[in-house]
Amino acid sequence: MNQRYPIPAVPFHTVQDTIKRSLFITYMAHTDTVEAAKAFIDSIRAKHPDATHNCWAYMCGPPGDTARVGMSDDGEPHGTAGRPMLNVLLHGGVGELAVVVTRYFGGIKLGTGGLVRAYGGMVNLGLESLPVREKIIPVRYSVIMEYSHITVFKRMLNEFEAMIKAEEFGADAAFTLELPVEHAEKLEAALIELTNGTVLIERLTQEDS
Question: What is the DSSP string of the chain?
């Protein structure tokens, strides 16, 4: 599973284009659950009840993950809208994204190949200008150490992109850390080396943290 990947940096993004007199409007939203994706799709349908088609696709996980995906041609010929839209999403490098392409028919038929290019192209057009940010799925640690190690310990945290989420000072110093999972083993090794093996390290589950 990808532990860090781009996701939309804004909740909502839109672009539009006219192709052979048909108006195409692309709406994109950050959706990390299927329920959120479906709610977004319903909102666009309600916004454009008079549109010829409101075709859609969504991918609610990391880029390329097909575990939670969906698509619809919404009346366009089978395979000419939802599938090409989803294909672009899966290969677009951005996760947790739903897209609706609204079409107002302009009187000129595009043909099946033209529809595939139009709907896939409208998703690409949206991705080109979509602001993104990095999502990091962190792990949490409980770390207990002697006071003499605190200064060096805090100085080394940046190297592992680690943040102190809580701290408590009693007989020893106790910290709750959060950091990207890919740095976890190296941090453990560094702490053991720093404290000559006296540190107590425990990876926390979601319930613990």
Answer: --SEEEEESSSEEEEEEEETTEEEEEEEEE-SSHHHHHHHHHHHHHH-TT-SEEEEEEE-SSTT--TTEEEE-TTSSTTSSHHHHHHHHHTSS--SEEEEEEEE--S---HHHHHHHHHHHHHHHHHHH--EEEEE-EEEEEEEE-GGGHHHHHHHGGGGT-EEEEEEESSSEEEEEEEEGGGHHHHHHHHHHHTTT--EEEEEPTTT-
pLDDT at 1 over 70: no
Q: Selecting from 3.40.50.720, 3.30.1330.30, 3.30.230.30, 3.40.50.1000, what CATH number does the domain 4-134 have?
A: 3.30.230.30
pLDDT of residue 128: 96
pLDDT tens digits for 96-144?
999 999 999 999 999 999 999 999 999 999 999 999 999 887 889 999 9
